Amino acid sequence: MRRVRVWLALAALALGAGAAWLRTPEPPARHTVARPLYKPPSGC
Amino acid sequence: MSAFLLPLVIGIAFGVTLERAGLGNARKLTGQFYLTDLTVFKVMFTAIVTAMLGAFWLSRLGVLDLDAIAMPETYLRPQIAGGLVFGAGFALAGLCPGTSCVAAASGRGDGIAAAAGLLAGVLLSGFAFPLFLDFYESDARGAWTLPSLLHLPYGLVVLMVVVVALGGFAVAERLERRA
After folding, report:
1. pTM of the entire predicted model
2. B7-37 pLDDT, tens digit each
3. How far apart are CA B175 and CA B179, in angstroms?
4. Residues 6+ apart with CB under 8 A from B163
5. Which of B61, B71, B134, B160 is the best substitution to test chain A (most A C-beta atoms within 10 A)?
6. pLDDT tens digit string along B54-111?
7. SS3 call for B61
8. Fewer Cβ close by (within 10 Å): the C or N end of chain B?
9. Does the pLDDT of residue A37 top 60, yes or no?
């Protein structure tokens, strides 16, 4: 179990280091969740 | 039909996983607040790291279009207030919304009470919504991300989150051993 956790930690570190090394630009965050428009009850 | 069935299947699988991890048990969850059982922290941070690395590399390999993923916007003060209310409810009930459903589904009385309280709270806050609508819509910050906030490259932030998670796991294990 301990060995599995060490390997998983190393894999995560390797993937993270690869991500940092690639210098990928952040994707544009254009697509946001549409805020539900609240409408007060009209009474009818 | 699959639009309804798929979320149902994913939800049941999520619930079963939470139950198997022992997260339907309020004693285990409140251990988080006493720093004696940090399972919640470890489960959540593992999920964050897995999803983050998966999103980064799948996007890098051209499998996933990150731009097509909806991103929740930040409303700072309302979300801090919501977080505090959420935390108070979590500490009081010993269960959060997801785990209260899991506890209720497995027949635990506290889970049924917490899930009933959750539904009542949703209903009441829905009725009271006009009272705090202005606050709800205030302090809008747009789609905030760590790289834009820290002015650091995306990949470097990915590595930083991995390192913080692994350090957090080591500290959590030490705290659990001491408890």
Report:
1. 0.80
2. 899 999 999 988 998 888 999 999 989 999 9
3. 6
4. A13, A16
5. B71
6. 999 998 898 988 877 777 788 999 999 999 999 999 999 999 999 999 999 999 999 9
7. coil
8. N
9. no
Whether A10 has its CB under 8 Å from any CB of chain B: the answer is no
Place of tokens 């941070």: B45
Contacts of A24 in chain B (CB under 8 A): 56, 60, 153-155
Q: In this prediction, what percent of chain A has a pLDDT beyond 90? A: 27
Query: Environment class of residue B39 by beta-carbon count within 10 Å: exposed (0-12), middle (13-18) or buried (19+)?
Result: middle
> What is the structure's pLDDT at B36?
92
How is residue B128 written in tokens? Answer: 């009271």
Q: Nearest-CA distance from B20 to chain A in Å?
A: 17
Please state, in angstroms and rounded to a whole number, the distance separating the CA atoms of residues A35 and B13.
Answer: 28
Give B93 to chain A, closest Cα distance, Å. Answer: 29
Write down the pLDDT at residue A29.
56
Three-state DSSP class for B140? strand
Q: Do A12 and B53 touch (CB under 8 A)?
A: yes
In the numeric block, which tokens belong to residue A35?
A: 């805020």
Say if the Cβ atoms of B73 and A35 lie within 8 Å.
Answer: yes
